[in-house]
């Protein structure tokens, strides 16, 4: 199944919708007292998911065209956003950073969440070294603690697309990466969340980035140093990954900061990051003094 958060015509707040080629229908309209957010759907467990799935399959009413809606972030209130750095050798090398024996893990702050086709604005006085990073996002579906690699994917609710936007000047001036990647709007997520059963193998997906139409990242998730299952097993050691947790799994090579000449995001840039089978996530960039 494919879900999204959108603002419907004449509405003021986002709601969870089921997405098909024919348009969208709000999940609360599919079943009585249906979940209004993805987080509520996940909290309801397999029984609620199955009820929504049956109702969506039987629904033959009118759907609203996507073009008449406005996207909200693919996740709205995740209990945590865990990001993994240096998980592709090419990206670690181009940034002249060492990919250690264990994953580089940091958190992203919820103020950074942004939506597909949204506008992210930052101050030029704070940074003029803003970079893109296409990443596969993983959403945990049930509490996961001390899980093995073999069972790790059983804990995944679904997958999404993340653009881990980074202020490189801040990143290289501080020991921790949370702040450089958590400026307002620096974590676009979406537009869709695709349930795990729709993705046969999370390590066999194309991943790419275009900035103003130019293809700058072009890779596959099979190039990850540590697979999705490995990351979940590692992150869950002694720590309960709560349902709804978003894990951003790292970016492949081709970052703009490392190019000669550099290709950095600037006022007027449009950046689209994408993962095969999930969707394309577009962000418009604006700067202020």
List its traits:
single chain; 289 residues; alpha+beta; Fumarylacetoacetate hydrolase, domain 2; ten-stranded mixed sheet; five-stranded mixed sheet; 19 strands; 16% helix
User: How many distinct folded domains?
Assistant: 2
Structural class: alpha+beta
Oligomer status: single chain
Shape assignment: globular
Number of helices: 7
Query: What is the CATH homology-level superfamily of the largest domain?
Result: Fumarylacetoacetase-like, C-terminal domain
Order of helices and strands: EEEHHHEEHEEEEEHEEHEEEEHEEE
CATH architecture call of the largest domain = Alpha-Beta Complex
Percent in helix: 10-25%
Q: Nearest-angstrom radius of gyration?
A: 18 Å
Unreliable stretches (pLDDT < 50, length at least 5) are: none
Q: What distance lies between the first and last C-alpha atoms, to the nearest angstrom?
A: 43 Å
Mean of residue pLDDT values: 96
**Assigned CATH class of the largest domain:** Alpha Beta
**Biggest pleated sheet:** 10 strands, mixed
User: What proportion strand?
Assistant: 25-35%
CATH fold label of the largest domain: Fumarylacetoacetate hydrolase, domain 2
Instruction: Give a count of the beta strands, DSSP E runs of length 2 or more.
Output: 19
